[in-house]
Design a protein that fits this description.
The protein has 285 residues and is α/β, with parallel strands linked by helices. The protein is built from ten helices and 13 strands. Helix 8 links the parallel strand 9 (185-186) and strand 10 (213-214). The protein is globular.
């Protein structure tokens, strides 16, 4: 049993998807599946029930997960104990913010060469918790949160991308309206997983009599690309920076599907010069 296998195991538990866990760990899906299978053989227990539409943890997984997290936490503590002391800032985000964040991190390091700035990949809820608990100094999120002790600073606003397959009836149009789209099924993840996205859609369609026509939710282990290929009459919305490989994108005439991107930090964190420099870099387009 290796620590990296435990890290992959925790990622699959939290994502409930081998493909998303692989993306989060920067390895291929086949590689993470292979390592989980090795871990199952080493432990002599099945950790996940795999179906075509879901990844379901077993009872053994529920017992192993807290111990795996403890092991990984100890590894982090060991590395921190021998690391050269100096200013250290941890920025929690996801991969869609990587390009802009790395540019801001490079600028902050140039201004504060003594600083160590880490870019930590975490799901939405864990990002906010990490800031509140002091594990991270700031987090990037879409939307906002209200939590005692935390401050929210809006950084920029991004347009959502309208995506369709090449076989869609609107494929020949460069620009569409919400009324044009209302006749076709909209595919999104379940609302409980993307509350903000569903709220933005419903708000935008408030003045469209027909409203959006919702198709079946995108399963957790499926991609928008595959669902649109299977449903060429459907459409979806993607966050800026999401992969659109294999899809066509349409410009929305009203420019009404917009969403704020914010930094979440503890109320006293703005006093840190490195954090302030990092925020300044994130503000810049």
């Amino acid at each position: 049993m290796e620590l990296r296998q435990l890290a992959y195991f925790v990622a699959v538990c939290e994502e409930l998807s081998f493909s998303r866990a692989a993306s989060r760990c920067f390895i291929s899906q086949s590689a993470i599946s292979h390592q989980i299978a090795r871990l199952e053989r080493d432990l002599g227990a099945q950790l996940f029930e795999r179906t075509t539409r879901a990844v379901v943890p077993t009872d053994a997984t529920l017992r192993l997960l807290p111990l795996a997290k403890q092991m990984l936490s100890l590894e982090s503590a060991i590395r921190a104990a021998v690391r050269t002391s100096g200013p250290r800032i941890r920025l929690a985000a996801n991969m869609s913010f990587a390009a802009r964040s790395l540019t801001a991190i490079a600028a902050a390091r140039a201004a504060h060469p003594e600083a160590e700035i880490e870019y930590v990949i975490k799901p939405f809820r864990q990002r906010v918790t990490a800031v509140a608990d002091g594990d991270c100094d700031l987090a990037l999120i879409r939307g906002s949160v209200e939590q005692p002790g935390l401050a929210v600073e809006q950084l920029w606003v991004e347009d959502l991308v309208i995506a369709i397959s090449s076989g869609h009836p609107l494929a020949g149009r460069g620009t569409v309206t919400l009324a044009d789209l209302s006749a076709y099924p909209l595919l999104l993840p379940p609302e409980q997983e993307q509350v903000l996205l569903h709220t933005v859609i419903r708000t935008a369609f408030a003045d469209v009599p027909a409203g959006p026509t919702f198709g079946p939710p995108i399963p957790p282990d499926h991609t928008a690309t595959m669902e649109l290929l299977n449903r060429p009459d459907a459409w979806t919305v993607l966050y800026a920076g999401s992969s659109t490989e294999g899809l066509l994108t349409l410009e929305l005439a009203e420019h009404r599907l917009r969403i704020p991107v914010s930094a979440v930090l503890r109320e006293d964190a703005r006093q840190n010069a490195i954090v302030r420099t990092l925020l300044d870099g994130l503000h810049q387009r």
